[in-house]
Amino acid sequence: MTTISPQSHLTKFTDGVGSLDPMFRPESIAVFGASLSPGKLGSVMLDAIERGSDGSISTFGINPRGAEDGFHPSIAAATQSHGAPIDLAVLCIPAAATPSALSDAAECGVRAALICAGGFAEAGAEGIELQHRLKSITDETGIRLLGPNTSGFFLPGRTTVSFVPTVQHIASGTVAVVAASGGMNHALSFLLSESGVGIGLGVGLGNGVDVTNSDVLRYLQHDDAITAIALHVESIEDGPTLLSAIRDVSTVKPVVAIVVGRSDVSAFSESHTGALATSWRTTRALLTEAGAVVVDDEHQLVDALAVLSRTRLPATESPGIGLVTAQAGPGLMVLDALLAGGVRVPTLSDTTQRKLSDLLPPLTYQANPVDTGRPGKSFASVLAVTAQDSEVDVLAVYALAEPDAIDLATAVDESSVRAQLPVVLGIGGPRVAVSTATTSAAELALPVLAGPTSLANGVRALVDDAKIQFGRRYTDEFRSPNTPLVSLPVDEAAGKDLLDALGIRTPDRRVAHNRADAHQAFTELQHPVVAKILDASVLHKTEIGGVHLFIRTKQELDAALDSLDEINAPAYLLESMAGPGVDLVLGVRRDPVFGPIIVAGLGGTAAEAIGDVAIRSGHVTLSAAATMLDDLHTSALLHGWRGGPSLDRDEFARATVALAGYVLDHEEIGDLEINPLRLTENGLVALDAVVVGTSRFANEGHQ
User: Fold this and answer.
1) If both were cysteines, with which of 237, 371, 498, 522 could 364 make a disulfide (CB 3.0 to 4.6 Å apart)?
2) Do 19-146 and 170-309 have matching folds?
3) Rounded to whole angstroms, how far apart are CA atoms 236 and 283?
4) 104 phi and psi angles, rounded to 5 deg
């Protein structure tokens, strides 16, 4: 068990050019657009900085027409007054004026800037051009830029650079929020703070011209004052860089991510940030593979961070939960939610149950969950006995706040179980009573959640994080043998030749260019036979009548060939039919954001309609590939369902990694798909192969 203790200090980094220290820990700030007019953005921002900082920051208002109001006419004048370059420039001016102001700031030695204005890539061609100018300035000068189109950032208790007036109410703590937008940075930070989870840094990225989520994640990786990170994702431009950052950061501290895009919100997203979007399902899958705990909504995010900011399990394949409840009804809700989320709640050993029976009233359930009835003096002992069970890795405790009966935090402390394993509390009741119990728990660094579902959410996040860590311990690799380049375009026969070279089994087949060849092939193949159109330009053969099954006689063969001739088949492919089984789809495609990704699931002609798929990155390992089909809702079909065939995980993993490795090594390949990949009693057989070139090569061929 790893217990994370809050830290009161802020680590100071000095990692040279490009450091984000001048951005997030500035000692001097200049506000462009400063004004004495109430309500103007520059006025609000300057006031917020002065009120929300700890007194160690020098501030300078910049307004060419406001010298008589105590402002400086330029950043050069402010720099001269300060006697040294200013750390951070906050630009509260119209979009059209920002490139010039940013350039002036960089020339005066300012190392970081923040642009609040909108009107850039999200606003059309003119805004895109302005954003390109900002990017050019950051590239040429090295100044770090947050935004544009953001409400800012804050380090509660130290620095506030946000024009949202209520930000002063956010409690200081150890969780960082890295959000795609300024609005969500504030929304999540308010929710976390109200739930007793304090904020160490809250950042709204806006359009992310320069400083990206990956940059902030890597900055936070080495900050010992931050114990967990909330990541809000709307759209992604550089998928591999983000995944690399999450892989590195999540080995040090938990990352909890929420991804927008379950529904088609692309039009609104583009108007909001002007950024490139990819599949919501793909993003969630790859963030999880990289190491993030991905949640469905902001409430789950708060529950997850309430736990993961204070404690973390070591890498564990399937942690067991010991659930102790003082009320049976809420305990049942917790149990139901845990089991629905795939969390293991093991039956306690006979020895444990005998010890519990000596402590608890008869007729209470004691096998797990442990129902204590109304808690009494033995509650601490019940916790200790449950925690000692060899199958229990985490202790989850739920009770209504009953100050006259028990203080949960005190009971946990008296039981000494915190030294053995993580303990997560759920407390219900009126706000005053819950607040008192929560305060005493916080003094012991115990995670506290407000209800049965929240308790289950927090425990599930703890378990998911441990499982993800466990899965990432394996770096085993299997690469297919050297294979020749294919000549594009690729027909099915050539595609299957490639699969053979990759070690993936295909049916016995013959290519026939005329009827005589077809009849000769028919005599050589085991019956029944399938006859198909052989044409690289036809990707969905069944839709045009290009596939004829169960051919057993020459007359049936001729009838099939007649049909293929009617659709102008340039050649025929004859194959021995595979035995019955479960049809899968296994493919690798180049995602516009993440690069090569693997998609696997139920296959056949209904694959797209069913949509039950698992997704991994093209760099998947054998161990990860072996378990990826467990993600499917229909995974039971692959393990001897009603006497059917059972999947050989190792065989599937080798096929998956071989396909992915080939696409990674061959930039001319855009998509490589097997559909169906049939699971038979004799193993996997690729019944079709589609190879599509990238746009660079698709129409020109590649030798």
Assistant:
1) 371
2) yes
3) 9
4) -60, -40
Inter-CA distances, 191 with 153, 179, 195, 479, 680, Å: 16, 14, 6, 46, 51
Q: Does domain 316-471 have CATH number 3.90.1580.10?
A: no
CA distance 652 to 628: 10
CB-CB neighbours of 533 under 10 Å: 23
Helix/strand/coil for 305: helix
Beta-ladder partners of 335: none
Q: What are 212's strand-pairing partners? A: none
- The answer to whether 87 touches 22, Cβ cutoff 8 Å, is yes
**Cβ(460)–Cβ(341) below 8 Å:** yes
Q: Give the C-alpha separation, 160 to 153, whole Å.
A: 7
Contact 138, 132 (CB under 8 A): no
For range 266-271, the mean pLDDT: 41
pLDDT at 227: 98
> Coil, strand or helix: which one is 482?
coil
Q: Indicate whether 203 pLDDT > 90.
A: yes
Residue 279, classed as helix, strand or coil, is coil
**Could you tell me the strand order of the sheet in which 423-428 lies?**
370-371, 321-325, 394-400, 423-428, 448-449
Task: Give pLDDT, residue 480.
Answer: 57
Q: 342's torsion region: left (phi>0), alpha (psi -120 to 50) or beta? A: left
Task: Classify domain 582-693 at the CATH superfamily level.
Answer: ATP-grasp fold, B domain (3.30.470.20)
pLDDT of residue 272: 33
CA distances in angstroms from 48 to 45, 150, 290, 347, listed in the order given:
5, 15, 37, 55
pTM of the model: 0.90
pLDDT tens per residue across span 666-691:
999 999 999 999 999 999 999 999 99
Structure letter (DSSP) for residue 174: E
Q: Is residue 626 within 8 Å of 652, Cβ to Cβ?
A: yes
What is the distance, to the nearest Å, from the Cα of residue 604 to the centroid of all Cα atoms in its chain?
29
Helices 182-194 and 298-308, axial angle in degrees (round to 10): 60
Report the C-alpha gap between 369 and 373 in whole angstroms.
Answer: 12
CA angle 504, 509, 515 (to 5 degrees): 155
Compute the mean pLDDT over every residue in the chain, rounded to the nearest whole number: 90
CA–CA gap between residue 534 and residue 513 (Å, rounded): 9
Question: Which of 142, 120, 146, 116 lies closest to 131 in space, CA to CA?
Answer: 120
| Residue 1 CB contacts under 8 Å (≥ 6 apart), including other chains | 311, 312, 313, 314, 420, 421, 422
697 confidence band (pLDDT: 50, 70, 90): low
Token pair of 1 as six digits: 């068990």
CB 617 within 8 A of CB 594: yes
Helix, strand, coil percentages in the chain from 3-state DSSP, rounded to 5: 40, 20, 40
Query: What pLDDT does 642 receive?
Result: 87
| Domain boundaries defined on the chain | 19-146, 170-309, 316-471, 508-576, 582-693
**Positive or negative, the Cα torsion across 665, 666, 670, 673?**
negative
Give the pLDDT score at 5: 42
CA pair distance 482, 600, nearest whole angstrom: 24
CA angle 190, 294, 654 (to 5 degrees): 165
Architecture of domain 508-576: 2-Layer Sandwich (3.30)
* Distance in angstroms (rounded) separating the CA atoms of residues 96 and 464: 46
* Secondary structure element (H or E) that encloses residue 445, with its range: none
DSSP, collapsed to helix, strand or coil, labels residue 402 as strand
Q: What is the mean pLDDT of residues 321-346?
A: 96
Taking the domain 19-146, which CATH number applies?
3.40.50.720
The DSSP secondary structure of 588-638, one letter per residue, reads EEEETTTEEEEEEEE-STTHHHH--EEEEETT--HHHHHHGGGGSTTGGGG
Give Cα 181 distance to the centre of its chain: 17
